[in-house]
Amino acid sequence: MTNAPDAPFSSSPLRLAVLTGSTREGRFGPVAADWFLRFATQRDDLELDPIDLADHSLPDVTSTAPHPEAAGFTERLAAADAFVVVTPEYNHSFPAPLKNAIDLHYTQWQAKPIGFVSYGGIGGGLRAVEQLRLVFAELHAVTVRDTVSFHRAWENFAEDGSLHHPEIPEGAAKAMLDELTWWGRTLRTGRTHAPYGAR
Question: In the chain, at which residue ranges do the beta strands (DSSP E only) sit?
C-alpha cells in the first residue's frame, strides 16, 4: 500500500506572465510575443498575463525602498507562477531595460520557472538567453532547458504575424511549455507548503 502524496499538484491553471523585454523603437518583440501568446492560448492549463516593458515607466535607480511607480508591475510579477521572457539579442546581450526590470525585483522571481523566446540575426538571440540564465540563477529562479529561438527573425514571419514554417517553432514552444508547466506546478506546490526562505 502506497501513501498519498503530502502535497498534491493543484489543478488550477498556472498564471504565466509573458514579458516582452525590448523597448527599442522599431522593435520586433511584439511580433514574436504575439505569436507566442496565440500559441499558448490553445492550452487550458495556463492563464496568460502579457506584460510589455514599453508600457511601464520603471525607475532607473534601484534601492531597498519600494518604488510606487512600479507597484502595478511588481504586483503582476508577484502574482505569476511562471514567466516567459521574450528577448532580442543586442550587441551579444539582452536589453538594458530588461536588466533594469529584473534588478528592481527579487522575491517576485524566487522559486519560479522561466522560459525564453528569443530572436535576432544568425544567433537567434541565444547568447542573450545564456546570459539571462546566469542572472536568474542568482535570483533563485529556475530556467527551463528548452527555448524558442528565431534566427533571422524577420524572415520567419508573414505580414500578418503568422509563421512561414510553423512546425519547428511550434514544436519548440510545446516542449518549453510542457517543461514550464511541470516546474510551475511543482514549485507552486512547494511554495504553498514550505515558503521559499533563501535570501
Answer: 14-20, 46-52, 82-88, 113-120, 142-143, 148-151
Whole-model pTM? 0.92
* pLDDT at residue 116 is higher than 60: yes
The domain 32-52+76-193 is placed in CATH, from the list 3.40.47.10, 3.40.50.360, 1.10.3720.10, 3.40.640.10, at 3.40.50.360
Alpha-carbon distance 69 to 13, whole Å? Answer: 29
> What local confidence, expressed as pLDDT, does residue 154 receive?
92
Mean pLDDT of the residues in the chain: 93
Question: What is the average per-residue pLDDT within 128-156?
Answer: 97
Q: How does pLDDT run across 73-88, given as a tens digit for each residue?
A: 999 999 999 999 999 9
For residue 52, the one-letter residue type is: D
Start-to-end Cα distance in the chain: 40
Instruction: Kindly compute the dihedral angle of the four CA atoms of residues 79, 146, 196, 103, in this order, to the nearest 10 degrees.
Output: -70
- Grid coordinates standing for 69? 511607480
Cβ atoms of 46 and 177 within 8 Å: the answer is yes
Angle at 30 between CA 72 and CA 136, to 5 degrees: 60
Task: Compute, in degrees rounded to 10, the torsion defined by CA atoms 28, 31, 34, 40.
Answer: -90
Is 187 in a helix, a strand, or coil? helix
